[in-house]
Design a protein that fits this description.
RNA-binding, 432 residues
Amino acid sequence: MSEVHIADLRNHVGETVTLRGWLYNRRSSGKLHFLEVRDGTGIVQCVVFKGNVAPETFAAADHIQQESSIEVVGLVKEHQKLKGQYEIDAKEVRVIAPVAREYPIGPKEHGTDFLMDNRHLWLRSKRQHAIVRVRHTIIKAVRDFFDGRGFTLVDAPIFTPNACEGTSTLFETDYHGDKAYLTQSGQLYMEAAAAAFGSAYCFGPTFRAEKSKTRRHLAEFWMVEPEVAFLDLDGDMRLAEDFIAFVVGRVLETRAEELKVLERDTTVLERVKAPFPRITYAQAIEILQKKGHPQAKVGDDFGGDEETVISSEFDRPVIVHRYPISLKAFYFKRDPGDPSLALNMDVLAPEGYGEIIGGGQREDDLGKLEAAIDAHKLPRAPFEWYLDVRRYGTFPHAGFGLGIERTVAWLCGLPHVRETIPFPRMLNRLAP
RNA sequence: UCCGGCUUAGCUCAGUCGGUAGAGCAGGCGGCUGUUAACCGCCGGGUCGCUGGUUCGAGUCCAGCAGCCGGAGCCA
């Protein structure tokens, strides 16, 4: 008699096995009880027939409460009606530990706030389980992609001494008497890493203290940021589209079951193949003017609405490049053909999921970079180490950052990023 | 920070014209040999967000506050 996981039951048909898990749901029909048991790898129906078990076991099986931990011994069979599904004909049912109080999350609907208060329990339900597994696969694919292309993982610090880009609101903390901030990006460190390793990436949490309360924002989110030496903007765009196509392909290959649970329409994901359409910022403004935003003009940044209008013109992610330099952070290189433009690019996901990648080619000229720091009214001293990247053998380089949660929301087809991370940190939520 | 909406049983919600609080699920008891958010019968369960006001009488009308949701702004 072997101990098995539910995901492996198909390999044990005809055997008597032991299963440990939690009671997910229970139905009853006279001399039959149906116990749905989950063990983290899946859910299986255990059939408790009065004639097959001890009388006291049969009576007790009808009173086990949801999420009690239990052990079932029984025969693995293919489901009588549903082909390809398996069930267990129970011989013994033992409660390992009953619930100490009624489990709060029932089979019917609940509100978001209630579920978020019970996030630690909500993770046990089918839908959340599917999302977390897709997230896992995305993160694994991200690492496999860069590792497979000779990138070196170079972790960036989370405590930083200064406001890197001088733009977003940062979380401030005390660092042995000095002010420190939680990082909003590892990018500047990746530029130093690119000089050391050629191709480098970091992957970790980043923090924004903005009072944003939208379906696309979290206070704590994860970002992957590659940076490559001797890469220009064109190469950066190719890297971004190959990368996204790889990640989407991996999820489609390995998480079909989870996407089905999430009722995700995968036909739109199957179209995500390189190359992606590329338009300039100026062309994006023209699209907006034609499609219901006549007031759009050069110099505007795009809100969620505008991103949706632009991306809905295309059947796959679209790359928008060469924004006005005035809209972008100080480190972007100017377009030699038009110095009012930055050599930057954003990737907008389809279906209104918005910007998932932002990046571009960096300014590699020491004098121009110093001037840009001054123009943005940033202090020079905290950036001395960063300027060293230009002082000691400067080189053209480019990179980008991809937000994991927005990517998970897009691939899972979720309306809000709050479900894309196990324990979200939002404007008004620090617990559980 | 601004605009709008919501707040009633453990959960999701209904509650008419201002007149003694309702359902489904969950829980308890019972029934049913194939159920799939099973079903059927019975039972227990309420500071109607908080504070104040109007009224003979407020879940219901008014004001303030709080929390949450959606959107805007800001941003990835």
